[in-house]
Amino acid sequence: MKIEVDQNKCIGCGNCVALTQNSVFDFNDDGLAECIIDEIPEDKKEVAEEAINECPTEAIKEKK
Ligand code: SF4
């Protein structure tokens, strides 16, 4: 599983960063979230999917 954040949609609310405790997402220099790991490990998938579902602007997508 790979994830990307659409920088044009992210509003920097921090939900995904907080939810994953900076282990999957973190803020970049623009104050927007980005995925900081290439492949989401098994033990982070559930929380990563929660972050996808709870992003208010639907900025987070699973890369197909
Ligand atoms: Fe950006 Fe969505 Fe993460 Fe909020 S939850 S920081 S809008 S990607």
Structure in a nutshell:
It is built from two helices and four strands. It has about 60 residues and is α+β, with helices and mostly antiparallel strands.
What does this structure look like?
The chain is α+β, with helices and mostly antiparallel strands and about 60 residues long. The chain has two helices and four strands. The chain has helices spanning about 15-20, 45-55; strands at about 1-5, 25, 35, 60-64. The protein has a two-stranded antiparallel ribbon with strand order 1-4. Strands 2-3 form a two-stranded antiparallel ribbon. A hairpin with a 5-residue loop joins β2 (about 25) and β3. It is globular and about 30 Å long. The model has no long low-confidence stretch (mean pLDDT about 95).
